Amino acid sequence: MPSLKIGLQATAIYIAVVALGMIYVYVIRAEPYGTALMVSHFWVVELILCGIVLYYIIRYFGWSGVGFGRINWRATVWMLPAYVVLGAMLLVQVPKLMDGSLTAAEWSLLGWLTLTTFMIGFSEEVMFRGILLRGALTRLSVVQAMVLSAALFALMHAVNVLAGQPFENTVQQLAFTFLVGFFLAPIALKIGNLWPLIIWHWLWDLVLFSTDVLGGFQPFAFLGLLFQAVISLWLWRDVMQKS
After folding, report:
1. Sequence-ordered list of residues with C-beta below 8 angstroms from that of 166, at least 6 positions apart, any chain
2. In the beta sheet, which residues pair with residue 85?
3. d(Cα 16, Cα 195) in Å, to the nearest integer?
4. pTM (2 d.p.)
5. Which pLDDT score is estimated for 218?
6. Which terminus of the chain is more exposed, N or C, with fewer CB under 10 A?
């Protein structure tokens, strides 16, 4: 049965494995956080994380119970700003993909990035907008559950200091990821299915981490997500009124 206790237990295990993974890539492989090479070598850790979320789905929640119910297609409009920003970011990188200048090694790296970032998007969305959020809803109000989901999603990124990320950059990332969690939590409940969030999360990470290979500075990424978060305030109000 889903519960807050189970959700918190799964989240603690998940964050602990991420922390160990960061130590592995930084200390053992000597690859600092944020590089395409580091992310491509993180696939083993992500495979373990996907195994963890699959265990909790099968053992406690079930697919519909964790957030893979029938999609409310009309509600997907709430993700439109996020997808528009993502599309603009992708356009910056298209010329590099099409000009024939990429080497075989770079294409291979992009392939590993594609696989690893998909697993990141899947495992993080299922854990924080699925297992944790749905488990929290069994004991907490909708607002409390969404805040908890966003806060622990942000807190997970604190372990990036273990991979050599500067402290001040980590603090900025905590604020940024809380913002992401702030707008994704109510959208997950409104849409009723995690796939639109997983796909967006996957492509977002893929675009950001592939800048090592493809270039393309993304100056409007934060402003775009800030706009999305402001729009999500209306969705928070709607969810609060119905709770």
Report:
1. none
2. none
3. 25
4. 0.93
5. 62
6. N
Tokens 């969690």 identify what position?
181
In whole angstroms, give the CA distance from residue 240 to residue 145: 11
Residues in CB range of 165: below 8 A, 6 or more apart: 32, 33, 34, 173
Per DSSP, helices labelled H in the chain are 4-23, 36-40, 43-56, 63-66, 80-98, 104-126, 132-136, 142-156, 167-191, 195-209, 211-214, 221-242
**Both tokens assigned to 179:** 């913002």
Nearest to 215 by CA among 103, 104, 94: 94
Quick check: helix, strand or coil at residue 68?
strand
Question: Tokens standing for 210?
Answer: 């592939």
φ and ψ of 212, to 5 deg: -60, -35
3-state secondary structure of 72: coil
Rounded to whole angstroms, the Cα distance separating 138 from 117 reads: 30
Each residue's pLDDT tens digit, 183-233: 899 999 999 999 999 999 999 999 888 887 777 656 667 777 777 777 788
The length of the chain in residues reads 243
What backbone torsions phi and psi does residue 193 show, to the nearest 5 degrees?
Answer: -150, 140
Distance CA(127)–CA(219), nearest Å, equals: 29
Residue 117 neighbours by CB under 8 Å, 6+ apart: 39, 202, 203, 205, 206, 209
- Nearest CA to 125 out of 165, 185, 80, 214 is that of 185
Q: How far apart, in whole angstroms, are the C-alpha atoms of residue 132 and residue 150?
A: 10
Q: What angle do CA 188, 193, 199 make, to 5 degrees?
A: 85
Assigned token pair, 164: 């050599």
